[in-house]
Each structure stands twice: as C-alpha cells, then as structure tokens.
C-alpha cells in the first residue's frame, strides 16, 4: 500500500519547503510473538510462555532505561516511532535500547508500526507531533490486543497521565512504571526507578543531614531564552565546566568569548552544575576576582565544610576556603583570574557514577525504604541522595547510581540505584569502575557483529592476489617493531636502496649505501577496510567504540580479536593484506615522490622496541634485518632533525610502566616508561605517512576529509609555564612553536632531570589535538601546532582507531580503488563522527590514567616508600609534587586542617615560592624534596596515595 506524506525541509537559504515522499505500508510485518497464529514466528523475539506483553512509550525508554536493562524486564515491544523519538532526543539512550533489542538473550521486539497498514496513523489538523506519536503508540497497543486475540495481556506502560487516561477510554490496559514494577513483587527493582523532580519536595525533612549544617539554597537557573539573549549580548559566557580533581570546589570554564578560563569557586557559584556540563557563566565584579596564589588544595574532608556552599562574598566565609579577593590599589588586577557564577545549564553531562553508600544518620523511611548518600569515587562529583530497599546488602559494595534531578532547595542531587559492580577493594571490581566511569564499552561483541567476520582460519587467496590494485610484495624483507607482547600489529616497515633510488614505505626496506642517490621506503598498514565494510554491524560497532582502550592489565578492543590478533595483524611468517605508502627518498631523507598501493606482504620478523634497540646497539650483528634497522634509524634521525628545525615540539609526559604478575595480575614493579631510539624511529615514519596521506585525501576531497588538528595555545594557557620559567631564571619565547622548541632545548641546568620537568609542564599547557571534518574549518585552522605541520591525519593504526578506518576509505577512493561511502556526503554526520572520536579518544586516555592510578594504589598498599620528588605547582596550603621514579603526581600539605587560615605560610607569586611568615623555611618551584608515600583511607572506601614531607 502506497501513502504519500509531506515532510518540511529547511533549505540552505533558510526557507521551509514541503517535500512529498512516498510512504509504503505493508501488512506482513511480524508481531514478534512465537504463539501468534497469523504471523511467521520463525524470527519471534518474545517468550513462548509470556503472560504479559509490554508496550512502552518514549518517555519510559528515555527515563527508565536502567530498569529496562535489568534482565527481570522482558517481553517488551519497542515501537519504531518510539525508537525514532528516542534517537532524536538522546543518542546515548538510543544506543542502549538498541543494544537490548539486538541482544538475542533478551526478549525485546522492535515493531515497525509506522510501516504497518493497520498501525500507521495520519496527521490530524491541529494535533501536535507529541500528541500524534502518543496516539500512534495507543493504536499499536490496541492492534496487539486484537491481533493476539486475548492469548496474552497487552499492557501499555506510560507515566503520562493524559496518555494513560485516553488509553483507558479506548479500552487499552495501561499502567505507570511504578505500579507495574510493584506488581512483580520485586522490591529491588523499585530502586531502579527514576523519581520525578517534584518528589524532592516530599524529602525536605531529610535535607538537614546534620543539625550543625545550614540549609543550602541555590540560585534559580535562567531560562534558555534569557541565556541565549545574554550570550548574544556578551552578558553571559558559554563553556564546558571542568572541576579540579584535587579540589571539587574549584572549577574552570574555558570561554572563547573572553579568551580566558573563568574560575568558578564554591558550590554556590557552581549552582548545581556537574563536571562536563555546558554552562552559561556570568562574571563576578572584578573586585571579587581571585589571585592564583590564593587557590588552595582541598582536604579529603572538604565536602563537609559548610563554607564551601556559601557565596564567595558571604561575611562568614573562612579565608582558608575562599581565595582572597583582588582589592583595587593593593593588588595588580593583571594578577587576578576572572571569576564567575553559573546562571544556567545549557547541556547536562549526567551519566552513571561509581562509588559506595554512606548511610544517612536518620531513621529509615516507610515500607523498608532507607535514605542514603552515595559517595562517588570521583571526588569531582557531589554526593547523591538515593532511596533503597537493600541498604544492608550494598554498604560493602561498589555500586552504580544515576542522577535524576537537583532541586534548587536541596543540598544534594537526587538519584537512583542502578546495579552492583562488586566488592569494594577487589581489583576486578575497581577495574570495572574505571571502565564505567569513562564510558568504555567492554561488552562482548554481539552475534550480528561476529557474523561480519571472515571464516577462520583465514589466509590470502589467489583471488586477493588477482585484484589489479593489490601489489604482491611478499618477496620484500618486511618487519614490525612494537611494544613487548603486542599482538595487534597494524604497521610494518621496509627500506631498501638501489643504485639510484631508495624505497621507503609503511613497510620499510632499508639497505642504504653512500653511493646511492636515493632509496625507496615502505610503510605497511594493515588493510582493515578489506574486512570492515561501511554500514555493517561491525562497522557501526567500531564507529561507536572509536578506539581500543589500553589498561595496565588488559586491552578493550575496538574490533573483535579474530581481526585484531589474527586476520589483520601483520604477524611474522604469515601472508597478510596491507595498505602501503611508498616514498622515493634521498640519502638525506628528502622525499622525492610518494605513491600508495594495496599490497600483500609476509613479515620476516615481529620485534619489540627492546629487541630492535638491542640489535642496533650490538655492533657484532650484521644480519639483513639489523642492517635494515640501522639504515632506517639513520633516515629517521634526519627526518626528526628536519621536523624539529621546522618548529615541531619535543614534549614529555609521565608515562608509567608496570611489571604485572601473570597469575595474580598484581603489579610487581613500577617505573617510568623508557623511550628508545627504536621508538622514535618508528614514530618518524608514522608521522611522515600521516602527513603524506593527509595531503593526498585533502587534495581529492577538500570538504569531507577527516583530519587532525592541534590548536595553537593562547598566551593565557602558557602563563603557568612562563611563571615557572621566570622563577627559575629561564626566558621562554612562546611567539611560535619554533621559538618555544628552541627555548626548551636551551632550558638546561645542572640537574639532568630539569629539562624533562620543563617539557612535562609545557605539555600540560597544550590543548588537546582533535579530529575534524575539513569542510568545517578554514585551511589556516588545519594546523597541527605540536608537529609544526599544516596538515595531519591518522592513517597508521586502523586496528585500534576508527579514525584511521575512515582515512583508509578516503585514501582508497582518492586512488580509484573503491567508491566513497555515502556518509561522506553528509557533513553533519561526519562532524558527529569526529565529535564521537574525540570523546572516545579522550575517554580512552582517561581510562588508561585511571588504571595506572588504581595499580599504583595496589602496588604501594603494602609498600610504604620514601623517595625524591620535585615541586611542580605552588598552592596557599601546600604544593603539588612529581615523583620521577614512579611517574606519580600528587598534593603535599604544609598545614593541617586546624592550621588552615592561620597565616603561617604565604605564597610569593613572583618567585614561585611558599614561605613561612617568619622566614625560617621556604619551598620553591622545581625544588627537590624528600617525601613519604603511603596508601591511606581518610574517608571510607576512598583510598588514596598520601604524599607527606619527610
């Protein structure tokens, strides 16, 4: 049956036109019930023994997704109109409900009501879209009742009073979520329900958790219309809230409108905003701006300070809690940082949080309901108030809680229990917490995804070799150099010399002699796109995951292991498919020409960085592979020198390496990760390949190429580095990346670790490199500041990064090997993909760091240690130190809680020192101090590595 439907569409010029589309209606869409006598039941998703089938509306899916994910809820029909609404309103929830529907173990059925002849509803004049969708849901529920002929009860689940009333009038059985859950006689499921914010009023009797605490009242958030107007007029400033991980009452909002970070200090000024929220900020009067030196490190018990909830101009705020204000005539206004208060939330960043419960000191509620405070492991998150019927069972557990609301008259946000992770302190439990807190998908790959994999065992066939665009390079001496134990090998190298040319590629072949005028270098990258096709479940899953995640003790793959460790991995002594970059280079590493080809290779060796370095260092070894390594290293050094001469920065980071017990998975040793020449050699050719490919794809597709940019840091971002440099007698020139690179090269002292510390501090002043669609920015904005190159992308790790998969498709299309997938015609979708890649990439980094912190705690739990540390940041009540031996950073307090605000210490901002008032003692930036490291637990279930001065 054909039905014509009008769709409004906005043109580029801003006009609204109405498009007529054909809408096909069918009568052969299956209901999904195995006992149905009308439909084909071969693909049935509902239970054979179902007594009740649930039809859920959009708001139930949006608000009660935690309940729907519980295995106790089954035999659910999710209508296509509901899925579409959820997708438009909350993509995260949409992905979660799709995952349930795609899970063969769950009894969820998707019914395409919008395409069934009996359930499609036409638009009615004067009816809102929301009312039309509610009517469509009721029509589908009614159809199920008639279609199944009373074999089971069909129940519409809705919390919408009007929708429920109309359903009852139309003879449809309807219940609220809560009434249905109560009928299941599962009190634990009631904990999963999201409570409407209006219920906060009923809880006011529990607001004052301790009699000594005053009640907190927050400012009302401005409506979006007023926020939009204020942003336009420059009254308000928009940005993302970033809460200080060491002081949850100090936060920052990066504002492009004023070109600086705005400090938000105190819970009152944060005004119920969470870390990661997009907020609107109003600047405080300049006489309330704060000096950098007066900011302090919060104590572990800081959350119990009533002062932190007060406005910064309150008369009874203790000086130790709120930074000193800048007073005209006494302090140079230039030394003050802009401060503000949040007036509205533009976009919430609420998600699930991991932590434990702190029982409330009050009698339990009615019906076995207990009130409790949830304490997140992440100190940046405020305590969350929940109700639970299983308090005793949860007190020694790590649990997940979601936030429902935060009433302006409530000290704490309200939320609900989601699920239990495991016992507090258990390593597997705490590792799971790391993944959840960073939104890492560690679920097993679905059957639909695994069905996309090639049959195993897989090998190169004659058909692969007969494809015109794939070159047979199996005769070349190709090898890989990777971290120890690497199984997902996505790059290999080869470099060889002829009388007149060198070949270099991502496979590299190297046999360079002084008589040669040039060489060929090859870089080989695993041909992942030969197995991952656009639009398949495998591709969709990789797109969502975005990247593989590397924890201390395990790896969370972006692609299934048969691909990452077998089919695509460029292992030694097996034939594999690759995508090659082949350079013709002079002996001085100048690139004469570049070409690209798909290839078949057979790696001769899979070396670790340590093994490759040992070969290069051992003068007795003269075998072909070792000779190739030395020749490649010679070229890489020249390439690196030329890159640095262009202005590329050589920065440093505190990477930590653990030695893990293979049986217990506990850390046996910890230390700084050592970078060798072998690492730098591989890095140089990877960088060169990424630049070459960026140039190639942008030339062919100037509007839809996926590139990677690193924005130039502002003077304000570099200010902390400049203050430290000035305090130790350095004059850093930050006018360009070249000037900064030269300055860092000259930043040397008697201390061999001094230069690395300065480079680590420089790294922390940089913004994050990000993916973007070339059509979204102008060419001057494409620049990668850190690498000092106008163009850059990621091509060299398609096994681990989805960005590289996209770039492989662009490169193949630019060479005429394959057609460009349709997604590249949709700029908005490309931008959305880039945004997700940036989000996933950052989360993977944060998860890796959190895993290091967890294993650091495990390692030092039974190993109190005295060691040397360097001061890297001064605060009014102490300083932050960096421990070179272990790559650890943390706060050191100079005052106890009782001494705070006593004025015993003061900060000399110019000299970057903290001094005793009587002048008897001082500590300066980058000074070496001796510290004691020990794991303590100042708050229940929140262990931390405490650093104290010896």
UniProtKB/TrEMBL annotation:
GO molecular function: 3'-5'-RNA exonuclease activity; endonuclease activity; RNA binding
Residue ranges annotated for the PIN domain, each copy included: 52-165
GO cellular component: cytoplasmic exosome (RNase complex); nuclear exosome (RNase complex)
Keywords: Exonuclease, Exosome, Hydrolase, Magnesium, Nuclease, Nucleus, RNA-binding, rRNA processing
Residues annotated as domain RNB: 470-817
Cofactor(s) in the UniProt record: Mg(2+)
InterPro entries with a match to the protein in the record: Dis3_CSD2, NA-bd_OB-fold, PIN-like_dom_sf, PIN_dom, RNase_II/R, RNase_II/R_CS, RNR_Ribonuclease, Rrp44_CSD1
One GO term (biological process): nuclear mRNA surveillance of mRNA 3'-end processing
Localisation per UniProt entry: Nucleus
Sequence intervals crossing the membrane: none
Family named by the database record: Belongs to the RNR ribonuclease family.
Protein name: Exosome complex exonuclease RRP44 homolog A
Organism annotation: Cicer arietinum (Chickpea)
Gene: LOC101496147
């Amino acid at each position: 049956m054909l039905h014509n439907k009008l769709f409004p569409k906005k043109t580029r010029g801003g006009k609204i036109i109405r498009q007529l589309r054909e809408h096909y209606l069918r009568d052969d869409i299956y209901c999904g019930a195995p006992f149905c006598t009308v439909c084909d039941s071969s693909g049935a998703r509902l239970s054979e023994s179902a007594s009740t089938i649930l039809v859920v509306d959009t708001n139930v899916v949006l608000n009660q997704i935690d309940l729907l994910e519980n295995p106790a809820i089954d035999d659910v029909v999710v209508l296509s109109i509901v899925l579409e609404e959820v997708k438009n309103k909350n993509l995260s929830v949409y992905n979660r409900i799709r995952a349930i529907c795609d899970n063969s173990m769950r009894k969820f059925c998707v019914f395409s009501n919008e395409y069934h002849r009996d359930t499609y509803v036409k638009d009615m004049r004067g009816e809102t879209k929301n009312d039309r969708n509610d009517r469509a849901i009721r029509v589908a529920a009614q159809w199920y009742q008639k279609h199944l002929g009373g074999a089971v009860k069909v129940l519409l689940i809705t919390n919408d009073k009007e929708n429920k009333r109309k359903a009852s009038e139309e003879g449809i059985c309807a219940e609220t979520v809560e009434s249905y859950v109560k009928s299941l006689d599962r009190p634990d499921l009631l904990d999963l329900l999201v409570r409407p914010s209006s219920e906060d009023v009923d809880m006011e009797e529990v607001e004052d958790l301790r009699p000594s605490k005053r009640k907190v009242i927050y400012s009302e958030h401005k409506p979006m219309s007023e926020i939009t107007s204020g942003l336009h007029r420059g009254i308000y400033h928009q940005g993302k809230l970033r809460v200080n991980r060491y002081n949850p009452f100090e936060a920052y909002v990066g504002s492009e409108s004023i070109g600086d970070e705005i400090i938000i200090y105190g819970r009152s000024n944060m005004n119920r905003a969470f870390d990661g929220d997009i907020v609107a900020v109003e600047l405080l009067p300049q006489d309330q701006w704060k000096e950098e030196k007066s900011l302090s490190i919060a104590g572990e018990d800081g959350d119990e300070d009533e002062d932190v909830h007060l406005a910064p101009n309150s008369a009874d705020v203790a000086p130790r809690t709120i930074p000193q204000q800048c007073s005209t005539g006494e302090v140079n206004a230039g030394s003050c940082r802009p401060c503000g208060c949040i007036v509205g939330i533009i976009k919430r960043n609420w998600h699930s949080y991991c932590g434990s419960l702190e029982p409330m000191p009050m009698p339990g509620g009615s019906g076995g309901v207990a009130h409790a405070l949830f304490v997140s492991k992440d100190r940046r998150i405020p305590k969350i108030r929940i109700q639970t019927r299983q308090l005793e069972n949860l007190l020694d557990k790590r649990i997940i809680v979601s936030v429902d609301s935060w009433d302006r008259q409530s000290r704490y946000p309200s939320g609900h229990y989601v699920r239990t992770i495991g016992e507090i302190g258990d390593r597997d439990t705490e590792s799971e917490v790391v993944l959840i807190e960073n939104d890492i998908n560690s679920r097993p790959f679905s059957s639909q995804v695994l069905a996309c994999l090639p049959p195993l065992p897989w090998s190169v066939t004659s058909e692969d070799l007969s494809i015109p665009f794939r070159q047979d390079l199996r005769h070349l001496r190709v090898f890989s150099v990777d971290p120890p134990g690497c199984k997902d090998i996505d790059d290999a190298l080869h470099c060889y010399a002829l009388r007149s040319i060198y070949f270099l590629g991502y496979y590299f072949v190297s046999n360079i002699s002084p008589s040669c005028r040039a060489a060929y270098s090859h870089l080989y990258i695993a041909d992942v796109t030969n197995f991952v096709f656009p639009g398949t479940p495998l591709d969709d899953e990789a797109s969502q995951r975005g990247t593989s995640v590397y924890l201390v003790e395990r790896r969370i793959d972006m692609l299934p292991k048969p691909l990452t460790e077998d089919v695509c991995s460029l292992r030694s002594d097996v034939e594999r498919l690759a995508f090659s970059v082949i350079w013709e280079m002079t002996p001085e590493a100048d690139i004469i020409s570049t070409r690209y080809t798909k290839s078949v290779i057979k790696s001769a060796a899979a070396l670790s960085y340590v093994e490759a370095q040992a070969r290069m260092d051992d003068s007795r070894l003269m075998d072909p592979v070792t000779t190739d390594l030395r020749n490649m290293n010679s070229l890489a050094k020249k390439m690196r020198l030329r890159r640095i001469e262009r202005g590329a920065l050589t920065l440093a980071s505190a990477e930590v390496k653990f030695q893990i017990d293979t049986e217990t998975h506990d850390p046996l040793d910890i230390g700084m990760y050592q970078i060798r020449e072998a690492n730098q050699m591989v890095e140089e050719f990877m960088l060169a390949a990424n630049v070459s490919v960026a140039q190639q794809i942008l030339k062919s597709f100037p509007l839809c190429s996926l590139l990677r940019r690193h924005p130039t840091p502002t003077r304000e971002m570099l200010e902390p580095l400049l203050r430290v440099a000035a305090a130790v007698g350095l004059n850093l020139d930050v006018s360009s990346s070249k000037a900064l690179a030269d300055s860092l090269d000259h930043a040397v002292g008697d201390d061999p670790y001094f230069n690395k510390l300065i480079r680590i501090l420089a790294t922390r002043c940089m913004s994050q490199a990000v993916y973007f669609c070339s059509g979204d920015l102008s060419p001057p904005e494409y620049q990668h500041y850190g690498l000092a190159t106008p163009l850059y992308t990621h091509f060299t790790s398609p096994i681990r990064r989805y960005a590289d998969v996209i770039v492989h498709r662009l490169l193949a299309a630019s060479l005429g090997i394959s057609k460009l997938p349709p997604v590249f015609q949709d700029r908005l979708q490309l931008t959305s993909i880039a945004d997700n890649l940036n989000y996933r990439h950052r989360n993977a980094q944060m998860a890796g760091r959190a895993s290091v912190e967890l294993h650091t705690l495990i390692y030092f739990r039974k190993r109190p240690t005295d060691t040397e540390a360097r001061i890297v940041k001064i605060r009014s009540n102490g300083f932050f130190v960096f421990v070179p031996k272990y790559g650890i950073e943390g706060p050191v307090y100079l005052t106890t809680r009782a001494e705070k605000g006593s004025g015993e210490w003061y900060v000399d901002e110019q000299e970057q020192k903290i001094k005793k008032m009587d002048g008897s003692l001082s500590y300066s930036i980058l000074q070496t101090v001796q510290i004691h490291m020990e794991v303590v637990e100042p708050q229940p279930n929140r262990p931390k590595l405490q650093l104290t001065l010896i």
